Amino acid sequence: MKSSSRSKDFSKLFRNSPKELYSEKFYDAMDVNSEDLNNYNETCNEIYVNDHKDKMILICEKYLRFLDKSASWSGVSSFYDISLLLNYWIYDKLSRIYGDNNTDAINLGFGALQGKWSTYDSIIRDRSYYEKCRPDPKKVNHKDWENRKKLHDYFVDFDIIFGQGRVFNNLCEVYYKKIKEMIPVCTYFEEKCSPSGTYSCPDHYSKCKEKNLETALKELPCYHTLKAREVSNLEGDFTDQPPRPAERTQDSADGPSAKSHTHLDSVDSGIQTKVTNSVLGAAPVLLTATMLYRVPGFAGSVEAEQIV
């Protein structure tokens, strides 16, 4: 839970965020539990949802705070579409509450917030930024919404990442991680958008084509340091793993494996010895019986039958 803070407008929350990237600062500011959330408690207590009303009340309060106090911040957001950032924030919160696949509950949550938007304040409703603040699930409700959110955040942060990434060493690791995160996302949309079809390609996919992310990564001053750290961590993870079953049989001659083989050999040898002894022991018996069969006068012998 974000720490409590006094708030007069959203721009203050935005500026006070410790995050570096615009998208992260926005989401961080939206999450702050400022004291003025109590101003919206009465309105949000009347929100109509089927489940998790307590969590929806908090989302409603934070949404109305933004709606009420973002006018002074509108100039900061003129470089990108604030409505997408806001709707992605809402969708992310609702999906965490109801689950990604529970589309009906998510849409119901959006509908409840739309009701608050349409009836909140007739005075500010005519302001230019008000329409941009309308909750609209159609903008963000896609099966791959998480990748689309990452792509839009990347678009918002693009100039900071590539404008300052090679200048400020203290922020280099932040930009390094962001670029690495975007490589598989851009690859994903490249595969989706390349063939012509029914797939709705995101508007900001072009940002993936503006920069070769692998090259941009290597141009960062911290690249070699962080790359070496990743390799070291990977090697450490590998050496810490126990040997695989196939490797455990490669013991020395005096080890457990050798003892096991010796035991098996001795068992096999014992079995062979018993079998041999049984066969050899049976041989004299058979031989004796044969000889008696041929002894004259012995009952049952051939000669005895002839004498009789």
From TrEMBL:
It comes from the Eukaryota. InterPro entries: Plasmodium_Vir. Residues 234-267 are annotated as: Disordered. This is Vir protein, putative.
